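Entry 14. Ran structure prediction on the chain below.
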Amino acid sequence: MAAAAAVPLIMVTRNPSVKSIADLSEKDKIAVPTVRVSMQSTILGIAAEQLFGEAGRGRFDPLTVAMAHPDATVYLLSGGGELTTHFSAPPYQYQALKAAGVREILNSTEVMGGPATITVVFGMTKFYEANPKIIAAINAAWPRRWS
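Output, structure tokens:
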């Protein structure tokens, strides 16, 4: 029914050797919400393809591990273990960036060439058709910043 959030998703790392995703190696584990199907995994695949060509799209799949954002943030900030990188979401990415030694290495807005909707409001067709006033109010209230 509507786009709800178009904020950047930011990949952060605590590995001092990693300046960009091109520097990631088998020594780095990347936390994502779900492997291969989350918005973060998809954007990472697009970024890999931009860097390494079509064959590079899945280059980072072996490095990704599924982990909820709160758990990944705590694990990353603890400084222990294999997890060196987290492709995060607000507010966790901003919390991580406040920590010493943690920095941004990828931003979804840059990869996508502009803002991308990461959260949407959806409903059943039956609800949509039965509630035209509610749908009209949602559409009237929603800010439209991009065409």
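The longest helix spans residues 39-52. Will compare against last week's run tomorrow.
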